[in-house]
Specification:
The protein is globular and about 45 Å long. The longest helix has 29 residues. It has eight helices and four strands. By secondary structure, the chain is α+β, with helices and mostly antiparallel strands. It has two domains: 76 residues, Glutaredoxin (3-Layer(aba) Sandwich); 121 residues, Glutathione S-transferase Yfyf (Class Pi), Chain A, domain 2 (Up-down Bundle), CATH 1.20.1050.10. The protein has a four-stranded mixed sheet, covered by helices on one side.
Length: 215
């Protein structure tokens, strides 16, 4: 298998944590994609993933799987012992529910703010933005508030349970971590100090071997 990604970026981080959790790193070849140089917007990459985002998992039979949730599902179920996406119907439902909230209310909101209200990945990527990009700065700023609301939501969730989807570490936790990692880039959206449950959870997660040393 190959993983086409950009080390240290939030979504590649999510899949690298999965690889570490599942002890699969030795079975994967990493192919670096130069995001600031807009390599992910060129024809060769778009042939693998038309949305132009990383990471992309390339299987040995030539199949390409993009989107972190789909990649996580594949990797987590390879051994028939899913630990990150749920075993029972209830676990799967709760994890996918919280995964969706982690994406829409946090990591995607941070991403919109980053790309539309900051310099983002720089000038070389700008030509690949939609024509109205420059006019959407205020829209991007609105998503900063949405990300803060998402942080507040997960702080409340973590006041009553140890992990985002319940009693066990799951891909929903990984996604919230990715969102906080993204928000922490140049401190663009600091986590408010009063969100003590979220901050304590974050510190605890960063002691987890797969998070401390992702693939």
């Amino acid at each position: 298998m190959k993983i086409h990604d950009a080390p240290s970026f939030p979504n590649p981080f999510r899949v690298r944590v999965v690889l570490a959790e599942k002890a699969l790193a030795s079975q994967v070849e990493f192919v670096k994609v130069d995001l600031p140089a807009a390599e992910h917007k060129q024809a060769a990459f778009l042939a693998m993933n038309p949305t132009g985002t990383v990471p992309v998992l390339e299987l040995d039979d030539g199949t390409f799987i993009s989107e972190c949730t789909a990649i996580t599902e594949y990797l987590d179920n390879l051994d028939g012992e899913p630990t990150l996406t749920g075993r029972t119907a209830r676990q799967k439902a709760m994890i996918h529910m919280m995964q969706k909230r982690a994406e829409s209310e946090l990591i995607d909101a941070v991403g919109i703010y980053f790309h539309h209200a900051t310099t983002g990945l720089g000038d070389r990527v700008l030509p690949y933005k939609s024509p109205e990009w420059a006019a959407r700065t205020e829209w991007g700023r609105m998503h900063r508030d949405k990300a803060l609301q998402g942080m507040r939501y997960f702080d409340k969730v973590l006041q009553s349970q140890p992990y985002v989807a319940g009693d066990a570490f799951s891909m929903a936790d990984i996604t919230v971590l990715g969102g906080l990692m993204f928000a922490g880039y140049e401190n663009i959206i600091p986590v408010p100090e009063e969100y003590t449950a979220l901050l304590a959870w974050k510190n605890r997660m960063y002691e987890r071997p797969s998070v401390k040393n992702p693939a």
